[in-house]
Specification:
Layout: H1 2-25, H2 63-67, H3 72-76, E1 95-101, E2 108-114, E3 121-135, E4 139-153, E5 156-165, E6 170-178
Antiparallel strand pairs: 1-2, 3-4, 4-5, 5-6
């Protein structure tokens, strides 16, 4: 049994190290608190623009820029004002955020549209877990697992999974999961 643990344990450790290295070097989303200019919605790619002259535009007073922790160049610029701001719920669905101005009143409203899940998309989301529980026969066991999702088809996520238990049992495989 010890020879088996050595042989497969080193394979499992190698796979975990490889997955952790891949996770470290892959492209990651912007860190929490970072502020970036939003990418225009693809629906507006070739849409023409026009100038309008509203009677007035309601804006938030300058302290709003600080409250929203906008970049220093925006906070320091007396010609830049906040029209609105919205928090979107944490969600696996993409969202389209659209700001609309009423040319008659100058009021601005921001709309959040929850878009459908993609039919097919590459993804790189993962999870490392430490669990403690029971196995067959009510044997207490600890488990270290690493999961990386690679492909999304609507609400189905496919990827790889590696797990090792404190009783030296291990698992390496691929699977599909449904998220809600």
């Amino acid at each position: 049994m010890n020879e088996k643990i050595k042989r497969y344990g080193s394979l499992l450790i190698g796979l975990v190290v490889l997955a952790l290295a891949w996770n470290y070097f892959r492209a990651k989303p912007a860190p929490v608190g970072s502020v970036v200019i939003a990418t225009p919605a693809p629906e507006l790619k070739n849409a023409p623009k026009q100038d309008i002259t509203p009677p007035k535009v309601s804006v938030y007073t300058p302290p709003a820029k600080k409250k929203l922790d906008l970049p220093a160049d925006v906070q320091d610029d007396p010609n830049k004002y906040v029209l609105g701001s919205a928090k979107l719920p944490a969600d696996t669905h993409p969202h389209t955020v659209t700001t609309v101005i009423d040319a008659k009143t100058g009021e601005v409203q921001t709309y959040d549209r929850r878009d459908p899940l993609p039919w097919l998309a590459a993804e790189q989301t993962g999870e490392i877990r430490i669990d403690y529980g029971y196995k067959t026969g009510l044997v207490k066991v600890g488990r270290l697992s690493l999961r990386e999702d690679l492909l999304q088809v609507k609400a189905l996520h496919a990827g790889v999974n590696v797990a090792i238990d404190t009783d030296a049992a291990w698992f390496v495989g691929a699977g599909v999961g449904y998220r809600w």
